């Protein structure tokens, strides 16, 4: 084995192969092979390809192992494997299909109001109540304060508010909401 400092780097070998490929030379033309290794490869007797059954005769109980031998042509091996995996036994699901569910059709909540939804509605109602009853610089509540107009121009702007929920109960204890509101 050559010392590591005398062996060309992988990147250098790759660049040389790329340059030879552009020039039309074979990729492995200059790779030196030891004489002993070449003689051993040439002298090694290649056993014959095993006798293979016809592809049409292969069934679920057939033995496909002879087709997996290294000496079998890759195209023939591919055809045998295609025949093997097209059998019904290989098309059965295993029940472990994690991502097979259709997530586009979800079940709506309906009339259920979660605690988070209720909390957000209470916070929004308190915020709106505080802005409506905020004192003006003169000391009186701002009863005549302008109400933001909706996009159509004929009513208050209700964007971001829950129109279907009843008006906020101003008699509800504020202390309960303040404790819950502090959570992040």
List the keywords.
5 helices, mainly alpha, DUF3306
Written overview of the protein:
This protein is mainly alpha-helical and 184 residues long. The protein has a domain at 53-89. The protein has helices spanning 10-23, 35-43, 74-85, 115-132, 174-181. Pfam families: DUF3306. InterPro entries: DUF3306 (IPR021735). Residues 38-61, 132-184 are annotated as: Disordered.
Whole-number mean pLDDT: 73
Query: Beta-strand level of the residues, as a percent range?
Result: under 5%
* SS element count, helices: 5
The SSE string, one letter per element, is HHHHH
The tally of beta strands, per DSSP, is 0
> Biggest sheet, open or closed, and with what strands and sense?
none
What's the N-to-C terminus distance? 65 Å
Uncertain segments are 175-180
- The shape, in one word, is elongated
Radius of gyration: 40 Å
Structural class of the secondary elements? mainly alpha
Helix content: 25-40%
